[in-house]
Amino acid sequence: MLFPDYRARRLRETPNFRRMIRETTLLVDDLILPLFAVTGKGIKKPIASMPGQFHLSCDMLVKTVKEAHDLGIPAVMLFGLPDKKDSLGTGAYAESGIVQQAIKAVKDAVPDIAVLTDVCLCQYTDHGHCGMIQDGRIDNDSSLDLLARVALSHARAGADMVAPSDMMDGRVGEIRQTLDEEGFSNTPIMSYAVKYASAFYGPFRDAVSSAPKFGDRKTYQMDPGNAIEAIREATMDIEEGADIIMVKPALSYLDIINRLKDEIDLPIAAYSVSGEYAMIKAAEIMGWIDGQKVVMETLLSIKRAGADMILTYSAIEAAKAINSREY
């Protein structure tokens, strides 16, 4: 059909028409809120590189989780900042570790919300890498047992789902086997299967003091130029027992999200990372953009690409906009 017989603007004429024919709709159900837990009480310390985000002691974190739950957000992802770090990252799997404390606090106060936990070592090691160091190199195989111990400690504390983000080969299988053997066969794994060696992680590394003390993470995180490798990584983790596949970051890898959507039959998560969040907030602070509208447009693009769920620091802001139909 051609103009004037076909007029595309007819169905854009009113808000109701636009709602009725919208092909992709962002829902509160799509959102997962990442949070940063610290030891102490009454702590709500702003993160300078991530305006609007905070280091939260468990009591303050629970308040934020309650707000998220009241808005209908189904899940949170917990990250922890330990008081001390060492070469083995022992704080990551300690029974009284900060994430373990936060899990228990949230499940006691808001039992209906799903608690997901980041399984990694970088926040807990004094060298800042996601695996163990042997002879100056990140050793894959010696890292697997420790990562499985971290996941098990989270499950024992009450986590509803564990999410390994380290990118060591074989860690999903090791974690699945450990959870099954210890009676947690019903605990799902959201694998950071397709995690790129990205420059967009800077604000997060600042927030948790996890920048590597030497070298970089390019030997275990994916090269930004690779797409076929993403299929291999996702397929490997699926075969090892992953229940959800994650792509991280989101905006620069919308094509990867879309490709995985066509290639695999598991739910796909996308992580809109700290650098994506910080750029929008910085431009908003400068008065250059309407921050809320850009956030909503960004999240909608991630869902349109094929993501079934989105981890975003803007989850509360987005949920408010969705609930009030302000987008």
Automatic annotation (TrEMBL):
Binding-site positions, 5-aminolevulinate 1: R205, R217
Residues the entry annotates as binding Zn(2+): C120, C122, C130
A molecular-function term among this protein's GO annotations: porphobilinogen synthase activity
This protein's UniProt keywords: Heme biosynthesis, Lyase, Magnesium, Metal-binding, Porphyrin biosynthesis, Zinc
Residues that, per the record, bind 5-aminolevulinate 2: S274, Y313
Keyword Magnesium: yes
Pathway recorded for this protein: Porphyrin-containing compound metabolism; protoporphyrin-IX biosynthesis; coproporphyrinogen-III from 5-aminolevulinate: step 1/4
EC number: 4.2.1.24
BP terms from Gene Ontology: protoporphyrinogen IX biosynthetic process
Positions bound to Mg(2+): E233
CDD domains reported for this sequence: ALAD_PBGS
GO CC annotations on file: cytosol
Pfam families: ALAD (PF00490)
Keyword Metal-binding listed: yes
InterPro entries assigned: ALAD (IPR001731), ALAD_AS (IPR030656), Aldolase_TIM (IPR013785)
Active site as annotated: K195, K248
Catalyses which reaction(s): 2 5-aminolevulinate = porphobilinogen + 2 H2O + H(+)
Subunit structure, as described in the record: Homooctamer.
Cited PANTHER family: DELTA-AMINOLEVULINIC ACID DEHYDRATASE (PTHR11458)
Family that this chain belongs to: Belongs to the ALAD family.
Protein's name according to its UniProt entry: Delta-aminolevulinic acid dehydratase
Organism: Desulforapulum autotrophicum (strain ATCC 43914 / DSM 3382 / VKM B-1955 / HRM2) (Desulfobacterium autotrophicum)
